[in-house]
Amino acid sequence: MLPLAGYADRLSARPGETLRFHVANATDAAVTAKIVRVISADPNPAGPGIQIVPVTTNGQPAHVSELATPALQTPPQGSYAQVPAAPLLSQLTSFTFLVTLWPTRPVARCQTIATWHDAARATGLSLALSETGCLTLDVGQGDGRNESLQTPCRVDDHTWSHVLCTYDAATQEIEVGVFAPRAEDGHSWKARLDHPLQHGRPDCVFFAGTPNARANTCYNGKIERPQFLSCVLGQEGVFRAGRGETVPGLVAAWDFSRDMHTTRIVDTGPHGLHGTLVNTPTRAVRGATWTGREQCFRHAPEQYAAIHFHDDDIDDCRWPATHEFKIPADLRSGAYALLLEAGDARENIPFFVVPPKGTQTAKLAVLVSTFTYTVYGNHARPEWTADPKWRDAWISQAKDWNAYPHNPGAHTEYGLSTYNYHSDGSGIAMASWRRPMLNLRIGYLTYPYPEIRASGLRHYPADSHLLAWLEHAGVAYDLITDFELHHEGLDLLKRYTCVTTGSHPEYHTGAMLDALEAYRDGGGRFMYLGGNGFYWKIALSPEQDGLIEIRRAEGGIRAWAAEPGEYYNQFDGEYGGLWRRNGRPPQTLVGVGFTAQGNFVGSHYRIDAAARTNPRTAWMFDGIPEATIGGDGLSGHGAAGFELDRADKRLGTPAHAVVVAQSEDHPPEAPWVLVPEEQLTHITTIPGQSHRQLIRADMTLFETPNNGCVFSTGSITFCGSLPHNGFDNPIARLLRNVLTRFLDPTAKFPRP
Known about the structure:
alpha+beta
């Protein structure tokens, strides 16, 4: 646990709106808070360094209200289901509980399957998996008598099993069994209680875990069709009920195939005892009856009647709000942060102020990739645990640069990113900003890479290179974010003469792409200043702002691969994965798309000689006599590096697009890989060129309808070269030339 940690209830707000912050304080010191404007978030001493400016109102520090004293808080990891159940079990005498399980990870602790046990009152029953995968029971028998029963019935990992628990009130006999759903064989264990089982009046029935902050007993794996019957069910009835058939005595049966886009679980029994999911486990996953004939859960929902629970799911820390900040009416749009101190502990929580709705205060809008920030939130590099040299280098460099000192790899309690795995080995598909995201911090260092002397900065600190350059150049700008773009679409963009991205706008919804295309074709001037952009398709929770889903389906450079049959988003029911596989390659929007990835090392661009004399592009190179540009920078020491995009007319690059410069001489110490979607075999590529030919960044320009224009750099490290040499360098001059023309309403961009 960090000594001081926190998060905001959202990442962007408008003047007049109020942001709330949720802060946990594990120190004995009081917490102080202040608001600052962020000019540069990069701690690299070779650049401008961290630059922040206190925010004042009427000459006084901006007021931050303290709503509650920050105290020690624990992140409530683990997903589970809860069902209000007082009328359900208190009336039962004999009963059967049946559920279908697919466990994924035995751990050295108890994993709850279902419980309505109250140990304090010695009532109810809890069914769980032991650390060896055997079924265990905790039984309440009243008057302080709780009995724990260990059974020899083992539930195999990564195998579907019907699990049965019955109680016969007449004989006080309990039976626990495990049966294979298709082979219809199995084994069971029986025991007679000394005293009758006492149900009491449980407040809730829980599946897969409980809200116990002291001990995480959450289950890892899939659960399907939990159900209660008011009789002792025989073996034949077990298989019938497990297949979803109606059997006598049904009290409750939860069909997880319904309302998959929500956190609601539906009881199809006679009492309608619907429940709620906590911490958003993964739905739209293969169930026990999946045949492989249907890949979309919407077409065969009965084959997807399972939920995959994880003991490290987290969609909201649910800490109490401790501070709030009402955005002053005159506060300039920009990047800001809440700075916190408690003794020697420091924390910062970035946020972004956008202009009032329906207005703009500058001709230029910078689109902040908050959805991408969230998807990468708490990205724990595998080197942190696998490579002590890398970990020590990160710690050393963070200390030398006075950078943010905390790494997600050392603090997995706040939940990891969708570039990591759950503890059971499955890929993390959900990300939320309602938790501390340690890599969304002023001064965060992404990669040390000491062996190749390349500083590595991505996302928020890297995007601040652009903001620092705009401030240095005196260019007025507004910030807008993915959230507003998704919800407001073209109406958000249409007031701006020019819109630009930052370094890595990777994750987008369909509504965002629609808005950007409409802006571009309506005469907007659009600058794409990054790489690996517009790549993955995401879905947003219909219930909770800030909760994002990614299915890493077929194709793409992936941190993990979604299982067959699980390529469709639970939130919107649409096919996930790459936008390219959804018929919208990045080239159709900005002329270039992801082609290759290497280590965080950059190279230069070589300007095409013809572009200097072409009247469509010659103006870009005013004051730039150099043949090559961008050989230096703060991100990988070069403007063309790490993730590269190239033009490809086959994928939608406009026929009239001009590649004005192209990267070259990418250093061999960055082992380059071609994106999988461009490869047919290890020696054959889809475009028919060699692998090496496709490892390049194409700087591209093309005109669009209604006097619009698009400029793309094709590299994720481009913005890192802007601050080089005190912002006096060819990359900065090039971007100033482009931006000046793009902001000029009289400039003409006739299509050839």
